[in-house]
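Protein Entry — a single chain follows
Fields — amino acid sequence, structure tokens
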Amino acid sequence: MINDLPFANDKPLCITDTILRDAHQSQAATRMRIEDMIPALEQLDEIGYWSLECWGGATFDSCLRFLNEDPWERLRTIRKHVKKTKLQMLFRGQNILGYKHYADDTVDRFCAKSIENGIDVIRIFDALNDKKNLEAAIKSTKKYGGWVEAAMSYTISPIHDEEYFVKLAVELEQMGADSICIKDMACLILPEVAYSLVKKLKEKVKVPIHMHTHNTTGTGDMVNLMSAYAGVDIVDCALSPLANGTAQPSTESLVVTLQGTPRDTGLDIKKFSEPAKHFRKVADELVRRGDLNRKVLNVDTNTLLYQVPGGMLSNLMGQLHDAGKDDQLYDVLEEIPRVRKEFGYIPLVTPTSQIVGTQAVMNIIAGERYKMVPKESKALLKGEYGTVPGEIDESIRKKCLTEEELKNIITCRPADLIEPEFEKYKEEYKDICHTDEDVLSCALFPQVAPKFLKWRDDPEHNEPPAKPLEQILAEKEGKAAAAAPDNAVRTLVIEDLSA
């Protein structure tokens, strides 16, 4: 009988739902809009989740660059409707939500404003698992009363064994973590491995353990279930309309599976019906907009070879499609492990997933490896992102860097080399920023945030960063017409619809 299965404890399993963030980041390149969310927010709040992940990660960039949304206003809106459930965000350590290191004062201000605007739990990770890059964010989150969930970027390599992750978890707990997340962004952890790792972690650390995986390889449900057997405290799931594939396993499936067992979640399956109905319509709309490619729902066990996270996979497919190179996807996927090894066995999670992915694309498209080297690849090789887990291939480093750069490889905490900068950002953007939140937007995304703020405050005289949704849909359906100049000859067509 299922009631006799050997669960490690009888505590109800807690669930974080990712429908508002990682589910659509992984499946639809983070294109869900706030108006897609609002009708279901209060229903989600009634379910009884441990938390709702709704912010951070790529949502900030996507709001500004593609959706013409103020990400801070999105957070405030969600908080207005979600009053009972903890709101959770993903925070990239010293990178915050951007793609480079920021000074400690900027990290501190971002943590403060995130919590002030509604965030309760900040999941903090570093793409390299370099603890030095987590220090400032952990300290600031604790300072402002937030819950620190320190995350370990899970990966597989000759370096990343169980002992490595147990040791890292103990150190993160000592740094002040309120919970530890196993962040399996590429769906690499297998069920038995998850069971063993969770069991060892529960023996060595006192704070709750949180499992985050995806279902790209079709193993995610089993990983969550085996983690529950081993005593994991919290797991990430996604509401069914945007579950599975490159996103997280289905929430409803796990809730039903555990009903009547010692780890029964206690959640009422009936409460999922209405929000699921709403998000099924949203998923269909994402397909209509061209934002969701149904290919991301396919099981792809090749991910175990290529170690590509869901969000990275959907973005790679989009980039190659835009370049007319769809047929080279698997060439790029085969190149990614080679680049990763040469870069020191770095885990593939933002921003390193973008760095490795872009370098792999360039190596394939250019027809010669490392003929083109983006500045981000050079920065990684110079140590600007921190200490890599393994050894960088010195022949690759010498090919990519100048002699002067090779003489100045960074070995300390990179942020120690960055002077306080927030007040400088404030001065630089004083003409367009009304709040510290605006300043932080510009600091993280200087190429797009200023344009967004100008449009937000004066839409009559400024163009938005992205095309309006109506225009996108019209173009998608082939109904868009080229805009005529004001003095152009116009034709009025009168259609008789009375028949």
About this structure: Confidence is low (pLDDT under 50) at residues 488-499. Residues 166 and 201 are 6 Å apart (CA to CA).
